[in-house]
Amino acid sequence: MSPKIKIATTSLAGCFGCHMSFLDIDERITALAEVVEFDRSPLTDIEHCGPCDIGLIEGGVCNSENVHVLREFRKNCKVLVAVGACAINGGLPALRNFVSVEECLLEAYRDGIGVDNPQIPSDPELPLLLDKVHPIHEIVKVDYFMPGCPPSADVFWTFLSALIEGREPSLPYELVHYD
Amino acid sequence: MSGTLTIDGKTIPFAAGQSVIEAARCAGIYIPHLCHKPGYAPHGSCKLCTVFVNGRKTSACTYPAAADQNVVSDTPELQQDRLRLTQMLFVEGNHFCPSCEKSGNCQLQGVAYHLRMLDNHYPHFYPQREVDASHPDILLDHNRCIFCNLCVRASRDHDGKNVFAIAGRGINKRLIVNSASGQLKDSDISIDDQAAQVCPTGAILVKRTGYQVPIGERVYDRQPISELALGKEDNHER
């Protein structure tokens, strides 16, 4: 039996919706589990991404920790896939690109309704926000893109089936959506 | 003058005064386009309809059809150019389809689907243009405008109102409203105008009409733009 294909997944500035849509492949996940093994992922307990065949990235890049994680994935994954609208173009979180980070933070932590002990969190444990939200292809090279907000389960299935079987992935018209 | 020309090796007829894209449409051949609309003066800004005519690249919407022309449209090279042009339009604006009322009914998105665009390729501009929500019935989101000039042509040539114009140069060019305040509420536009209906993207929207069509039944959910654009053009809008 050939060794299992290793897949790592992560959510950067994502909503976990792409991961949920991935799980929408339903019982097909048992067939997938026959041929793949999951490395670092919100679905496993593995803390750092090791050498992998495929890395699935959900979410754009909004803070310094996202940059570190994204680079770790790029370093370890042979094939890196931008999953969903956020990873591809920043997505709806990139609507904050029209407001300064300072204004955003002040609104949420000082001036917002019902804020207790108003101050912008400044513990060094917390990653700093970037001034803008970026798609992941502006930080690292991306090999494939799966559009959608989220991509449907069939998009995941079609894409992963092709990658696992060593074919070039392609989506039929019905599966290409940005919303 | 009328006669025949060939597109991608197929011989088709053309009528006097037709452009290459019009002759192609009448013959059931789709050439991708955004700024072209039958019945409207040609504009030639989106460049998606670029084809080879007798070996030279030109816009099919502005080029007059002529006898014995050899037109080449459906090649990997031209489709790749069209893909890159569409990606340029996407990064130049803020096309966040997941929250746009036009999603599913948007020609920019429809063309991108047709070209199997999976990503935006280029770094994003994230422009910060003010949204004009001043009008009681019509919303103007400048960040989705692709400068196709259809609203300008609709208002000037069809509604007889001259509500819109394009001002500025280069990347700073923008759609402006011809009213003293520059706001839509002080213009003559009304929701029945072609100018309020013609926008191929979500830049000009009629308020309180969004999200009324279920997903799966929107224009480009049902049929690809390549087929719709060849039908009765009315079906192609909204």
UniProtKB/TrEMBL annotation, chain B:
GO biological process: ATP synthesis coupled electron transport
UniProt protein name: NADH-quinone oxidoreductase subunit G
SMART domains: NADH-G_4Fe-4S_3
4Fe-4S His(Cys)3-ligated-type domain residues: 77-116
Organism superkingdom: Bacteria
Span of domain 2Fe-2S ferredoxin-type: 1-79
Record bears the keyword Lipid metabolism: no
Keywords of the record: 4Fe-4S, Iron, Iron-sulfur, Metal-binding
Family under the similarity heading: Belongs to the complex I 75 kDa subunit family.
A GO molecular-function descriptor: oxidoreductase activity
Needed cofactors: [4Fe-4S] cluster
Subunit structure of this chain's protein: Composed of 13 different subunits. Subunits NuoCD, E, F, and G constitute the peripheral sector of the complex.
Cited Pfam families: Fer2_4, Fer4_15, NADH-G_4Fe-4S_3
Organism: Methylomonas koyamae
Entry GO CC: membrane
Keyword 4Fe-4S: yes
